[in-house]
Amino acid sequence: MEEMLCGKGGFGRVYQGYRKCDNMPVAIKHIPQSGVRRTAMYMDTRTKMIPVEVALMLKVNPKEGQTSAAVTLLDWYDLKSELILVLERPVPCLDLIDYMNTRGSYLDEYEAKIIVKQLVNALIEVHSKGVFHRDIKLENILIETGSAVPRVRLIDFGLGAFLTNGKYAADQGTYDYLTPEWFHRGWYTAVPTTVWQLGVVVFGMLHGFLPFITEEDIIFENPLINENLSSDCQDFINSCLVKKAEARPTLETLKHHPWLM
Q1: Residues of CATH 1.10.510.10 domain(s) within the chain?
Q2: In Å, how far are 13, 115, 194, 231, 260 from 119, measured between CA atoms?
Q3: Does the domain spanning 2-88 belong to CATH 3.30.200.20?
Q4: Which of 131, 143, 158, 214 is the most exposed place for a label (fewest CB within 10 A)?
């Protein structure tokens, strides 16, 4: 059962709804076929051309009895004019921007650290399943608020790709989160891009605004980090936002950064 509209953009529209058999809350995403990328995938004893977003979400879906940082794809309908995805909708939850607004406009360092720890683990999990999200940003991070400790969930794999060690030249994601190497050379690699986007997110969480606005900012300017943050926190952000991709730490290295220990 489809109910109210809860989001729209270049990808299409997302509606709140529920599954009739058990009243489970769901999100229903409508994507025009003109915007659907496809890939070959072996399913039901044969190879089929299916939407890339579906293929990626099937890879990150949890096995029975397990949990996943990514929201679960429950069902999908590949129709003539549109692709419809039926997705898990955690309740209660807020996207990270709305969650920050409940705290004023940014998070204090202690609470940010709780979320960033989970976010790093979530990104490691997604990469371990062979998926490169490619559009990590505040709006694509949900915070479940139904327990004492907020829980991070990742949404919107619409710009995602299969993880490789090679170069990517397709559009990277949202402009404010683009990497310097994208502007310098027109290509990028998965792990340094994810780490850069993580750095932009963490800066945004702690400041209430993003570190870069223009291409020149991204290429040349260092982020103006609040000096009241701990030195470990400042180092974490700066290490993610190193201009040279090859000099950025890996997600596994960040997991053991002093700020998160």
Answers
A1: 93-260
A2: 26, 6, 11, 20, 11
A3: yes
A4: 214
| Tokens at 135, concatenated | 């559009």
Of 97, 70, 99, 63, nearest in space to 85 by CA: 70
The amino acid that residue 214 corresponds to is T
Instruction: Please tell me whether 88 is known to bind a ligand.
Output: yes
Residue type, 222: N
CATH class of the domain at 93-260: mainly alpha
Query: What is the per-residue pLDDT across 192-237, written as a single tens digit (0 to 9) for each?
Result: 999 999 999 999 999 999 999 999 999 999 999 999 999 999 999 9
221 annotated among ligand-binding-site residues: no
State the Cα–Cα distance between residues 136 and 123, nearest whole angstrom.
9
Question: For residue 40, which phi and psi values (nearest 5 degrees)?
Answer: -80, 135
135 among known catalytic residues: yes
In the set 135, 156, 176, 232, the catalytic residue is 135
Determine contact, residues 96/143, Cβ cutoff 8 Å.
yes
Q: Is 144 among the annotated ligand-binding positions?
A: no
Its sign, for the CA torsion 68, 240, 159, 48, is: negative
